[in-house]
Amino acid sequence: MVEKDIRRRTIHDVARAAGVSISTASNALNGTGRTNPETRERVRRVAEDIGFRPNALARGLLSKRSHAIGIITNDTYGRLTLPMAAGVSEVLVEEGMSVFLCATDNDPRLAKLHLETLLDRQVDGIIFTATRMDLKPPMELSRLPVPIVYAFAEGPEDSVSFVPDDAQGARLAVEHLLQAGRSRILHVTGPEDYLAARIRAASYRDVLGERAEVMFGDWSEEWGHEAIQRVFGGAGLKPDAIFCGSDEIARGVIDALRDLDLSIPSDIAVVGFDNWEVVARQTRPSLTTVDMELKELGRQAGLAILQLSKREDIPPGIRRLPCSLVTRKSCGAI
Amino acid sequence: MVEKDIRRRTIHDVARAAGVSISTASNALNGTGRTNPETRERVRRVAEDIGFRPNALARGLLSKRSHAIGIITNDTYGRLTLPMAAGVSEVLVEEGMSVFLCATDNDPRLAKLHLETLLDRQVDGIIFTATRMDLKPPMELSRLPVPIVYAFAEGPEDSVSFVPDDAQGARLAVEHLLQAGRSRILHVTGPEDYLAARIRAASYRDVLGERAEVMFGDWSEEWGHEAIQRVFGGAGLKPDAIFCGSDEIARGVIDALRDLDLSIPSDIAVVGFDNWEVVARQTRPSLTTVDMELKELGRQAGLAILQLSKREDIPPGIRRLPCSLVTRKSCGAI
DNA sequence: TTGAAAGCGCTAACAT
DNA sequence: ATGTTAGCGCTTTCAA
Predict the structure, then answer these.
(1) How confident is the model at residue B34 (pLDDT cuts 50, 70, 90)?
(2) How confident is the model at residue B2 (pLDDT cuts 50, 70, 90)?
């Protein structure tokens, strides 16, 4: 049977059981005001004994702080949002904050519904995250009565946003390849209408020169495979390194190279982007790749919303957080 | 600048602006009691105009229902919990329920902390999910003042649990292979100390006989690869079909088979388990696999917690929800 | 049909 | 050092 009518203990119960008034009980429990150490201890013991737990709703009603925040995400908790959510959680939980997770599934109606519900619940802040940086929130998010922070999404000018530094991440990858003695580096990446793909490609060209070749496609393994077939099918000079826009693409690339009996990294080095462990660890050879440090990004966003919810100001703007390079086997020196 | 002091409108504001008392305003807004249609409309219009939204905290305090539930999960939102959470969300959102997501990261201290916080917040119910069915909640979950439902986890006898029907799923896979004309079927799966692995293996043997071979290992792609090398390295009759305990294993199996120049499915058919799209779709050939219908499982759990939170009884016990078979290219008739 | 008043559980002035 | 009281925003008797 599911237990039901275990009536919850209130501060009244504590006060009565300890033989004090409710305000004394409150003071004793919270360490506010002046309370005789003895009474304080007694009250606390009693509270513990009868299993008293303060009603967060009542507290929130009074303090106007619910100690909860909402995360609104456009996907059904994909692999990008998840690490971020974990990071957010990590910094907030210790502060006694809870997290409402709201998946909008890219449905504006749902997004609006969630937003309204969050506001009704008096959340102390909202974090908006997306699966692509250039995806705008499907609802009006500007003049809200609560602070908002964007993670993996760029909010308006005067807002606080955290995004990975794609340019720096791409540079990291390309420079690593250069240091490994590679000179003919090709970039195989996702669709050109993704901001992240454009930024990475631009950064890659920044290092290698405007004529460095970029192959835009989609984010799939299949595209990686196809790109290699196309490149190695034709004539002309072949690359000695491939910088891929995602780990999935890299996986396709590696598979295709192996089908061509090219050995990695001795013939061709490969670097990926994402550090999606389940992919990067399992390629053969395992994949050197750029990590966007999404959990750290989540942590920062959590910290920011925490500060804002305490009404501390933080300067608006877009923070680009550094990526790191995870070196595995797919990219060695020549 | 982040907006702050947009004071929230209260029902007082509505009442004043509409020239009625707050109780009339309340009645008009909620359609309770007797209210003159005209006043009702006026009040509603005014509320809309000034942007009034009821304070969920105040409502909850009074009604003793917070219209929120918590999901406690042991992993950092892995790929198993996620689809479930999506299913839960799907059925609850339409009912105006919000979801607190609590990741315990397998830390009992965190689990306890989350549980207490949820209770303090007066959640209407708690869903406990895990990454493996035989993982018990790290805290006392029996005599709670709120209903609890287990999803992808088996609670105590008298509780409500939803798990995938692994036995049926395995049977689905094996029978599909038999129908495709395969007779020497091998089962390569995860660690034997996983309940799910044991159940699937038992069911596989139920169909094929006690002497059918099971290779326990781990859930990795690498293990799939290794298993194939081991089997095809030795002498003796080779299997003409492999039933894998996970899609990752299947991926390793397929890769290894291709390395041996065996063609799939003509030489060997492969069936996976999980329908983890990003893996199953990208294997070459694409993978026929068992889908545990996790989203549906989440939906059921959500529905259950909804009923329980309305104090409707539902019979305790473990519900095994049917798996489905997703047929792709890796398993054709001989 | 509408309004006044009590109270959900808690905190914080203020009075004792 | 402790108790009394008001009130957070809302719903809900009960009177008018």
Answers:
(1) confident
(2) very low
Nearest by CB: B103 against A2, A86, A144:
A86
Q: Using the C1' atom of nucleotide C11, identify the protein residue whose alpha carbon is closest.
A: A62
pLDDT score recorded for residue A6: 60
Question: What pLDDT, on the 0 to 100 scale, is given for residue B68?
Answer: 97
Half-sphere exposure of A73 (CA within 13 A, CB side): 24
- Strand, helix or coil for residue B58: helix
Using DSSP's 3-state secondary structure scheme, residue B182 falls into coil
To the nearest whole number, what is the mean pLDDT of chain B? 92
**CA A270 – CA A286 distance, rounded (Å):** 10
pLDDT of residue B234: 85
List the single best residue of A121, A225, A283 to mutate versus B (max B Cβ within 10 A). A121
Residue B21: CB less than 7 A from any atom in strand C: yes
Distance (Å, whole) CA A306 – CA A233: 54
Would the pLDDT of B265 be above 70?
Answer: yes
φ/ψ of residue A15, rounded to 5: -60, -50
Residue B307's φ and ψ, nearest 5 degrees, are -60, -50
CA angle B233, B238, B243 (to 5 degrees): 105
Interface-testing mutation among B6, B9, B101, with chain A (most A C-beta atoms within 10 A): B101
Same fold, B63-164+294-322 and B166-293+326-331: yes
Which residues of chain A fall short of a pLDDT of 50? 1-5
pLDDT(B244) > 50: yes
For strand D, the positions having any atom within 7 A of a protein Cβ are 1-5, 7-14
* B63-164+294-322: CATH class: alpha beta
Going by pLDDT thresholds of 50, 70 and 90, the confidence category of residue B6 is: low
Above 80 in pLDDT, residue B298? yes
Q: Which parts of B51-80 fold into alpha helices (H)?
A: 56-63
- How confident is the model over B217-236, as a mean pLDDT? 94
> CA(B318)–C1'(D8) in Å?
44
Structure-derived torsion over alpha carbons of residues A183, A189, A193, A196, reported in degrees to the nearest 10: -80
Per the listing, tokens 């489905």 go with B324
Q: Which CATH number fits domain A166-293+326-331: 3.40.1170.60, 3.40.50.2300, 3.40.50.720, 3.30.70.270?
A: 3.40.50.2300
CB atoms within 10 A of CB A239: 19
| Confidence at residue A80, expressed as pLDDT on a 0 to 100 scale | 85
Strand partners, B128: B72, B150
Q: For residue A82, which residues of chain B lie inside 8 Å, CB to CB?
A: 76-77, 82
Q: Which residue has the tokens 């892995």?
A: B78
- The mean per-residue pLDDT over the stretch B292-313 comes to 95
**CA of B221 to nearest chain A CA: how many angstroms apart?**
7
Amino acid at B127: I
Q: Do B6 and A278 touch (CB under 8 A)?
A: no
pTM over 0.85: yes
Q: Does domain A11-54 have CATH number 1.10.260.40?
A: yes
Question: Å from B15 (CA) to D6 (C1')?
Answer: 22
- Closest-approach nucleotide to residue A26, Cα vs C1': C11
- Kindly give the pairing relationship between strand B288-291 and strand B324-326: antiparallel
Q: Domain residue spans in chain B?
A: 11-54, 63-164+294-322, 166-293+326-331
Provide DSSP, A113-134.
HHHHHHHHTT-SEEEEE-SSTT
